[in-house]
Amino acid sequence: MADRAEYARKGIARGRSLVVLQYADGIVFVGENPSRALHKFSEIYDRIGFAAAGKYNEYENLRIGGVRYADLRGYTYDRGDVTARGLANVYAQTLGTIFSSVGEKPYEVELVVAEVGETPEQDQIYRLPHDGSIVDEHGSVAVGGNAEQISGYLDQRHRDGMTLAEALKLAVQALSRDTNGSEREIPAERLEVAVLDRTRPQKRKFKRIEGRALVRLLEAGSADAEPTSGGDVE
């Protein structure tokens, strides 16, 4: 089992990192992804988003399974019965079964399932490692690549009530830090960004941010950061 866990962790670490952050009006997903077709972030249901790091074909199968589960449960019972907690339990059972099976290799994936609530206190973020365990996260979470280093950076700087521009700027700064401590620039065209926006009037809260809208947000975040560039964010 230790060998299987090490195999899965090494596979996940080869992928690019992504981060999920709470901000005042919802939850933002940010990752470095040069592909415009193979998405790391997706909508599962009305208020639920999905993020994954690792092997694309494996987490895409899990995403499709999650969409089917959510659609069936919402149709059979009520749309309000589809929750991130329920979806995380389904994913945990699937990943745990595969991890403990001797007939197939463990999945080289790490998932994040997030649900935006009516208020920030009702937001839910769950991280699911390769072994099927569930970790209830608050504020921010990073998976894939050098996730441990990025998580430490976010824990020190993330705060409640951030604007979307501030949260996006912090996420990009965290992703730009290499394992040796140096920083690099990630252009907007290499970023994949999506949000669960609680202020949207329609039931579906998930939307992607790209193109000029993304550039404007990055510029706004840089402008907001300039007055406090001499010190750490509390």
From TrEMBL:
UniProt note on regulation of activity: The formation of the proteasomal ATPase ARC-20S proteasome complex, likely via the docking of the C-termini of ARC into the intersubunit pockets in the alpha-rings, may trigger opening of the gate for substrate entry. Interconversion between the open-gate and close-gate conformations leads to a dynamic regulation of the 20S proteasome proteolysis activity.
Protein name: Proteasome subunit alpha
Biological processes annotated in GO: modification-dependent protein catabolic process; proteasomal protein catabolic process
One term under GO cellular component: cytoplasm
Signal sequence annotation: none
Keyword Cytoplasm: yes
GO molecular-function term, one example from the UniProt record: threonine-type endopeptidase activity
Family of this protein: Belongs to the peptidase T1A family.
Record's subunit section: The 20S proteasome core is composed of 14 alpha and 14 beta subunits that assemble into four stacked heptameric rings, resulting in a barrel-shaped structure. The two inner rings, each composed of seven catalytic beta subunits, are sandwiched by two outer rings, each composed of seven alpha subunits. The catalytic chamber with the active sites is on the inside of the barrel. Has a gated structure, the ends of the cylinder being occluded by the N-termini of the alpha-subunits. Is capped by the proteasome-associated ATPase, ARC.
Superkingdom of the organism of origin: Bacteria
Location(s) in or outside the cell: Cytoplasm
Stored PANTHER family: PROTEASOME SUBUNIT ALPHA/BETA (PTHR11599)
Function: Component of the proteasome core, a large protease complex with broad specificity involved in protein degradation.
Keyword annotations from UniProtKB, A to Z: Cytoplasm, Proteasome
Pathway(s) where this gene product acts: Protein degradation; proteasomal Pup-dependent pathway
